[in-house]
From TrEMBL:
PROSITE patterns: HELICASE_ATP_BIND_1, HELICASE_CTER. It comes from Gomphillus americanus. GO terms for molecular function: ATP binding; hydrolase activity; RNA binding; RNA helicase activity. It comes from the Eukaryota. This is RNA helicase.
Amino acid sequence: MANPLTKRTPSHHAVNKPRKRRRLEQPATKSQSHNKIAQGKLAHGKVVPINDLAWKPVALPDTLDDAEGFFGLEEVDDVEIMRSGRSGEEVQYRVVVPSELGGMTEVDEMEWQGFEGGELDEAVVKGDTLGDGKQERKRERKTKDSAAQSSKPDKNEIKSLSNGFSALQDLDNEEETSEGDVSAWLPLGLSGHTLAALAKLKFWHPTSIQVAAIPEILAGQDVIGKASTGSGKTLAFGLPIIESFVTSRAAITGNKNGLKYPTALILSPTRELAHQIGQHIIQLCTNLTTESPRVAILTGGLAIQKQERLLAKADIVIGTPGRLWEIMSTVPGSLKRLQKIKFLVTDEADRLLSEGHFKEVEEILDALDKAEINENETESKTSQPRQTLVFSATFQKELHRKLASRSKAANNVLDDKASLEYVLQKLNFRNEPKFIDVNPVRQMATNLREGLMECGAMEKDLYLYALLLQYPKSRTLVFTNSIASTRRLTSLLQNLGLKPFVLHSEMPQKARLRSVERFADPATTSSILIATDVAARGLDIPSVDLIIHYHVPRAADTYIHRSGRTARGELSGTSILLCSPEETTPVQRLISKIHASSDQKSETPPLCTLTLDRSLLHRLKPRVTLSTSIVSATSSKAKISSEESWLRKAADDLGVDYDSSDFAELESSAKGRGRGKGRKKATRNEATTTSKQQITAWRAELADLLAKRVNVGVSEKYLSAGGVDVEALLQEKEERSSGNRGGAEFLGRVDIIRGWE
Ligand SMILES: Nc1ncnc2c1ncn2[C@@H]1O[C@H](COP(=O)(O)OP(=O)(O)OP(=O)(O)O)[C@@H](O)[C@H]1O
């Protein structure tokens, strides 16, 4: 007896009540899968790669109308899908051999309560990013014919479509079917394919920006869309692009030579965001019930040759301006292909269009606008004009205006009218763009809690450490204004026993992507990322709990975007600014301007003034002081050693002997006339005089301090009041009695922060 691919709902369902099962009609090829089983390739209980499963075509019904569009799909029986990781990202496929072949019986299966920590889930189609072949294979499994499915379904059709899709995946659970209603999307005019993909992602309702923008884009309108961070802007432009691909595949197929042109070009200001947009679109396309578009992501830092190959076949191109222009301007034929796009999207548009970043974007736009039509491409003359879509949470002009300056108000976030004028100047729209602002009064995410903590300029390290200890089980993103600071803070916190990841633009691209991936790892709830503003825009990392602005942001839009990395969608989050006394007033002024138009005037102030428990800071200070000394001694040493190796090489080139003292003198007399001579000399002296033994001694002293508990209140004994996490204390005692040293970390939530309303 075959066990159809099953969906197990969260474990409490499966454990408490036996699940009803629905069997798919047995297709003719059942014997093939049994052969594989008999040969031991699919032995019961074996975990196998998805491509090795016994895939077989779904039998077609007698009349094609009954198929509800699901032609050419493949299905698989006798497999359990195990999901692990916090959000179930890791998927494994375990073979369940039918009973007649000696495998698990239906009764066995109903009693089996699953893998610990894992979940069974549905999976009929599979896919991956373009380029590794898997997406190609998936495309083959899907129908080549979309014509019959492109008409817009009504509500009843959608229900049956949903049901048809569910049936293929054995989504036979009543709770699931009632929840799996995507009818809220119907007024937007999307096709059944797209709706089925949304259902697979469990996106039951469109967000406000999606409601407002999608119908306009589908109607051929140019759109400028403004909506707060985390509100689903990517799909607001992504869905119409996918929809256009799905419903008019034939129309966009290229010239008579069979050449295909991309449907859309999406410009992103940062590499990470480009990859994220790509993944987001691929995720949706993977669940389409028809041929899905091929996505090419073109960013710097990765091999250009591979990206050129991807571009040659791509249906949707996502890129950062630098790499895109490099390819467009050098690779023959690429510009011509991109000139045929139907959609041009600028995401984080105010950033892309701002002075200083605009040059390459301008070159790209100019090149796209040049109509190079030759006689072989007559269809270009009749094709629809390109639609321009512009999205951001903010529109502002003077990006680098200093926040801390005493000049009036760096509230450079534009109002609607100014936004429109600004973008109109920069972009060549084909028709009058529709300006959609779904949050005209509120710039910040609804569930965001904002705080400001004043501390001495030299105390920021200490405050940062204390805050990180206060939030031990959080995903925390720390923003600085310089690469040097991200590096220094990373070392400082590593010395203190924390494990921060780092992200800045001077890192190799693969390391950048790895940092984001590890920080976002769903297997852990606690992680720290120290980043420059390269992470401020667009990054959609699930469940970031806390944003710490170690340096105050340089502009209002940066504050909005940094803070927008938390409290995304329905989630809540916290943002804390660390301000020196001179920074406090301008920052407060700035934040109140950002909130000035907010409709929440009568409620609590938008920005709470926070303080930290002084006695705790006092106890933590020796740790931070030691760590700071180690960082400055080791980084000065490293700097001197790299300078010396440069000088040694220069001496070699000149054919003279290298003598470090001669060069030090020469260097100091050359540099010595300027300001800072004394400081530089002192640093060099300090670095050279800080012996290795001294650094080792500091490290030992710090390790000693870290091994001791930090008490949090008035008593040297552990407190039973004041918000101490008693459970954590007890656990700590257990660890100690079992020989585990423990105690290196600050324990639990202790409410050392005062001031939240
Ligand atoms: N209709 C929907 N239902 C549920 N989740 C959605 C929906 N649309 C988008 N999302 C999810 O919401 C999250 C935020 O979306 P997205 O990254 O597009 O936000 P954004 O508005 O572009 O934010 P930012 O301005 O910070 O770039 C993503 O994880 C996305 O998958």
